[in-house]
Amino acid sequence: MLSRSFRHLSAYLYKMLPEVVFVLGAPGAGKGTQCSYISKEYDFVHLSAGDLLREERQRPGSEYGEMIEEKIRNGEIVPVEVTCSLIHKAMQKSGKSRFLIDGFPRNKDNLDGWDRVMSDKTKLLFVLFFECSRDICTERCLGRGAAGSGRSDDNLESLQKRFNTYINDTMPIINHYDQLGLVKRVNAESVPMEVFQDVKKAFDGAGLQRIAN
């Protein structure tokens, strides 16, 4: 009887955990744009790992600022302890229970760190993977940089490093989750609203309710 009650309590607590969707794709695949649509339609909080790191880099007195700047400029990945800490703080600060985590986990170290620090604090629903060719992604990023994105990595040299990191480090993570049946793939080469139609199919298929208008 006690064992059954414990199982029921564990199941209840698991249901109460914050729900997470990892959002992955190459630089310029449109992750941020699609996350803004999803947030409005499905009441998810959009947490961009890159934006959180950039904010921390700019924060006066940050002990990580210089290291983060160097890693971002060189297309390298920031230590997972730093990224997980920033994500967890942002989740707690939001007061919400559903999160899109954009651009994370980007390598095995990220994955292991998340499993070690956050897996018992959250419930992973699925991984949303935006597929887009390198040429289209490069064109988008360079256009974003030319339009004044203010990002130090929206240039050709940084992009080449970021793509190498994506292919060598992030694709194996997507393959890992694919083997677990957790990846929902979306072709991201169309215009944003067309891409979002496929995104909605993925979220609706997972039983996630839209916000009532």
From TrEMBL:
Broad enzyme group: transferase
Entry-linked Pfam families: ADK (PF00406)
EC number in record: 2.7.4.14
UniProt entry tagged with the keyword Protein biosynthesis: no
Stretch list, region NMPbind: 48-78
Cofactor(s) this protein requires: Mg(2+)
CC terms in the record's Gene Ontology section: cytoplasm; nucleus
Residues that hold ATP according to the record: 28-33, 144, 190
Cofactor: how bound: Binds 1 Mg(2+) ion per monomer.
GO molecular function: ATP binding; nucleoside monophosphate kinase activity
Ligand binding (a ribonucleoside 5'-phosphate): 54, 76-78, 103-106, 151, 162
Keywords (A to Z) from UniProt: ATP-binding, Cytoplasm, Kinase, Nucleotide-binding, Nucleus, Pyrimidine biosynthesis, Transferase
GO biological process, alphabetically ordered: 'de novo' pyrimidine nucleobase biosynthetic process; pyrimidine nucleotide biosynthetic process
SUPFAM superfamilies noted in UniProt: P-loop containing nucleoside triphosphate hydrolases
Residues noted as binding CMP in the record, renumbered to the chain: 110
PANTHER family named among the record's database cross-references: NUCLEOTIDE KINASE
Subunit structure: Monomer.
Family per record: Belongs to the adenylate kinase family. UMP-CMP kinase subfamily.
Physiological role: Catalyzes the phosphorylation of pyrimidine nucleoside monophosphates at the expense of ATP. Plays an important role in de novo pyrimidine nucleotide biosynthesis. Has preference for UMP and CMP as phosphate acceptors.
Protein name: UMP-CMP kinase
Organism: Papilio xuthus
